[in-house]
Structure formats: structure tokens, C-alpha cells
Write a structure and sequence with these properties.
The protein is an alpha+beta fold. Helix content is 45%, strand content 12%. Bound molecules: zinc ion. Residues 286, 288, 305, 307, 313, 317, 319 line the site of zinc ion.
Length: 491
């Protein structure tokens, strides 16, 4: 008991040990309980009742970190075993299958606790106690929330721990009877080590990526919980052939999606940044032609669009607007037909109306409270779309399929009907002023486009890089993740 904290818990357990001193067998009902009261605050409690005197022989305490019901359950078992005298036969009644499994593993003499075991510290402690006290353990599986009075009592007792704010039970770091442990930020990592390291790297990389200046929008959207990162991951890896092929075709589309996502699609604005010597004056605007009434003329003629070609403008330029509207209409039809094949009876006018009035299906919508059309095309998959499909009754894999296949279709349509024609237009302009593809290759001599030099070269790249968010955010994400037992992506 020397490694148990705080002292008040130890003295309580010592009292029970005195009471049970002459017993040869003990029967414990154990239970743990878990409550997520908000995003970062979790309450966990555990309790046991000894059956020979259920009114008196009962114990409960709070616990923390890596919130999970099996952890609370393991804590309950540990505190129960600590009260048993040497050579005692202890029977544990629990509804947790994982705990029974880990307890019986000890019976077979095999020590299976390693970096892969969840809550390793507690389980090490349990097995250490069993060995030190020469306990004989039996387990009985009971049904959760059944009519068993004692089980229900234990359950209630565990739930009352956080209502009554009982002391928080933990194992002191000095406890060293175990295999190597992993410590991060002064915290002992108590779940699968390899997964933890993976998460650590992921969170760090993600933090780096999101703090780029160009990703300020992405950061804001993530903070507002408007985008669904897990769907984005599936979408970026999506392959319409259905298999993980590495064909040239498939990787081209993957690359195109990634470029959209990372704002590196070569729009004129991006080209100006990359090749300031070539695209070096204000006449480099959107390469599409629009109908305009020229000064003094009476009929409209085709002139070049005067807007700067940002990523947004590629999809919203008035030349492409009719095409875009048609594509969106088809997209909604496709999603509707997918939904109809899943739940034919649930497709109503109301559902279709709701689907088509989602803000990202309307080119003019610029709500701060949701994703815009451009962002959807980029692959920022909105959480509201996920919610819509979920409320309709799709399961997770159906949602994944609908979103990935239709978004992939959307990007292919845009590529062939908007992006390719636009690239042809741009090519014509480049040829007219003598810009050749080799001028844009890395490592070639800088060619200054003299035909076009009407303004001094503008150094877009000289803008100071300002960071909009902290590079250490990942520390907080992982810390919260450890406390609440939820993935770091939630924070
Ligand atoms: Zn335009």
C-alpha cells in the first residue's frame, strides 16, 4: 500500500484490511463509472461492495486520466484486492470483459503486460498485489444494468464519487515493479506506446502545417469545429478504382486534390508569387474572357476578365458560373440518388430541399458559420454535411463512401470543364508574350519577360512571414487527450 496516494484513501483501505484479516474468502462486486461533463472535463469514479455485509463493507473513490470505463473498473479491482489478507480466495463480480480477461491471464501464469496493454500501471500493480499476497482469484461475469441488486448498488456508488467529490486515487510514480514505462511531459503513458508515439508525431506535424500562414482559414475552421478531419483523411487517400492502386492516373488525381487542399494549384496569383520575373505586371489577371460593354461601343464584346485569379475566382468567375451551377445541380442529384439507394422511403421533398440549401452548394454563399463552395471543392469537408448524412440514417462507412465518391466526381468535373479550358486560355496568353514551359522549371536561368515589363518587378515573397498560431499547441492537445481518453483531434 506504500505506493497508494492520497493518505486518506490508504487509511480507509487499511481499516478494511483489519476487518477482513481473518477471512479466507472475499466476494467483491466492482464497478467503474465515467462521465464526460464537457469537452475537457471528465469525471471517473470506482467502487466495490463486499457481499458479507453490503451495507458496511463498501468503498468508493475518484480517479483521473486516460478516462475510460475499463480504467475505472481496473481501479475498483485494485482497491478491492488491496484489502485482502494473505492467501485469501477473492472472487470478483464485474461486467467488464476486458478486466476478466486481464485477471485470468495472471491465472495462467503468463505475464502479458507490456507497452501494448492499456492502463499498464494499474494492471502491473494488480498483478504485483496478487503475487505479494498469494491471492487466489476467481472472476464472475455479470450483466451490466441487470436486476442484480448489489451490482446496481455498486454502480450507483461509483457514480456518486464525483457528485460527492471524493478523494482522487492514484499510484505513486515510485512504484517500479513493472516493465519499462514511457514518460512524456512528466506523465506516464498508460496506453499502447506505439500508438502514443504515432499520435505525438501526427499532432506535431499537424500543428506545423496548420500554423502556415496560408492555412489561417483552415485553422479558424478547425477551431470552430466546422470541418471533419477524419473524412478529409479518407478523402485524400480515396481512390475511385476501389483499390490502393499506384497507377499514374490515380496519383495524378491524388496530387490534384492535394494541390487544391494546400492552395498550390497554379492559379495566376500563385504563378505571380512563384515566377515574379515572368508574370510581372498587373495585366496578369484571370485568363477567361467575359462579355463587356466597351467604352463608347454599343454592343458587348469579349474582353479578358479583369479580376485577379485567386483560387476562389477560378470557380466563381462569371465565365464559368453557368457551368458551375450545372455541376452543383448534378452533384446534388448524385447524392440524392445515393441516399435513395440506402433508404428509399426516407427521400422526401423536405430532405432534398435541406440538402440543396446547404450553404456550400450555393456559389454566392459566404457564411462565416460554414464552409464555402470553394472550400468544399478544396476538400474541406464540412461537419454539417457529415451531420446531415448521419441524421438521414447513414452509417459511418456509407457516409465515407458518399462523401468521397461524390467529392471526387465533383473535382473531376471541375477539372475537365473549368480547369482545363482555363489552362488553355492561359497557355495562349503565355505564348503571346513568349513565356515557355521551360522558363518555369526550377534551376533554369531567370528570364525576365521584357515584352511584359511595364511595372517594376514586385517581390511578393518578401512579405514577412507572420505566424498566426502557436507551434506548441500539440502539447495541449496531447495533454487533453491523455486526461479525457479521447483522440487528440478532438481538441
Ligand atoms: Zn475571371
Amino acid at each position: 500500500m506504500e505506493f497508494i496516494r492520497p493518505v486518506s484513501v490508504v487509511s480507509k483501505l487499511r481499516e478494511f484490511r483489519l476487518l477482513f484479516n481473518n477471512r479466507t474468502d472475499l466476494h467483491f462486486y466492482t464497478d467503474g463509472s465515467l462521465k464526460h461533463s464537457d469537452q475537457t472535463l471528465v469525471n471517473m469514479g470506482c467502487a466495490w461492495i463486499e457481499t458479507s455485509n453490503p451495507e458496511e463493507y463498501r468503498f468508493s473513490v475518484q480517479c483521473t486520466d486516460y478516462a475510460s470505463s475499463s480504467r475505472a473498473e481496473a481501479m475498483a479491482i485494485l482497491t478491492a484486492l488491496l484489502t485482502a489478507p494473505k492467501y485469501c480466495h477473492v472472487t470478483i463480480y464485474t461486467d467488464s470483459a476486458i478486466c476478466i480477461q486481464l485477471l485470468t491471464k495472471h491465472e495462467y501464469g503468463s505475464h502479458h503486460i507490456n507497452g501494448k496493454t492499456v492502463n499498464q500501471m494499474i494492471w502491473c500493480y494488480i498483478h504485483w498485489v496478487i503475487q505479494a499476497l498469494h491471492l487466489h482469484i476467481s472472476t464472475i461475469k455479470i450483466k451490466a444494468h441487470d436486476t442484480d441488486q448489489l451490482n446496481n448498488d455498486t454502480d450507483r456508488l461509483a457514480k456518486e464519487t464525483y457528485k460527492n467529490d471524493l478523494p482522487i486515487f492514484f499510484i505513486d510514480h515510485k512504484f517500479t515493479f513493472h516493465h519499462p514505462i514511457l514518460v512524456w511531459n512528466k506523465r506516464i503513458i498508460e496506453f499502447n506506446h506505439r500508438n502514443f508515439i504515432n499520435q505525438l508525431y501526427q499532432a506535431q506535424l499537424f500543428n506545423c502545417y496548420i500554423s502556415f500562414r496560408r492555412n489561417i482559414n483552415l485553422y479558424e475552421l478547425t477551431k470552430k469545429r466546422l470541418i471533419n478531419w477524419s473524412l478529409i483523411n479518407s478523402y485524400m487517400a480515396y481512390d475511385y478504382n476501389g483499390k490502393q492502386s499506384t497507377s499514374f492516373d490515380a496519383s495524378y488525381w491524388k496530387q490534384f486534390r492535394l494541390k487544391l487542399f494546400t492552395y498550390t494549384i497554379p492559379t495566376v496569383e500563385v504563378l505571380k508569387n512563384r515566377h515574379p520575373h515572368l508574370y510581372n505586371n498587373y495585366s496578369w489577371t484571370c485568363p477567361n474572357d467575359v462579355l463587356r460593354l466597351k467604352y463608347g461601343a454599343t454592343t458587348k464584346t469579349m474582353v479578358r476578365c479583369q479580376e485577379n485569379e485567386s483560387l476562389e475566382h477560378v470557380f466563381l468567375c462569371e465565365t464559368v458560373r453557368p457551368i458551375m451551377i450545372q455541376i452543383i445541380k448534378n452533384l446534388i442529384l448524385r447524392i440524392t440518388s445515393d441516399l435513395r439507394s440506402i433508404h428509399p422511403s426516407r427521400i422526401t421533398k423536405h430532405v432534398i430541399h435541406k440538402l440543396s440549401s446547404l450553404p456550400y452548394f450555393n456559389p454566392d454563399s459566404r457564411l462565416d458559420s460554414d464552409i464555402s463552395l470553394t472550400q468544399l471543392i478544396q476538400g474541406f469537408i464540412p461537419d454539417s454535411l457529415f451531420d446531415f448524412l448521419k441524421n438521414f440514417g447513414c452509417n459511418a462507412s456509407e457516409i465515407k463512401h458518399i462523401v468521397c465518391s461524390n467529392l471526387n466526381w465533383l473535382v473531376n468535373e471541375i477539372h475537365s470543364k473549368i480547369w482545363i479550358p482555363r489552362c488553355k486560355n492561359l497557355r495562349l496568353r503565355e505564348i503571346a508574350v513568349g513565356i515557355l514551359p521551360e522558363h518555369k522549371k526550377k534551376g533554369t536561368l531567370k528570364k525576365i519577360n521584357v515584352n511584359n515589363l511595364t511595372f517594376p518587378v514586385i517581390h511578393y515573397l518578401d512579405n514577412p512571414v507572420v505566424q498566426h498560431c502557436d507551434n506548441d499547441l500539440w502539447n495541449i492537445w496531447i495533454e487533453y487527450s491523455c486526461q479525457t481518453g479521447k483522440p487528440w483531434q478532438d481538441f
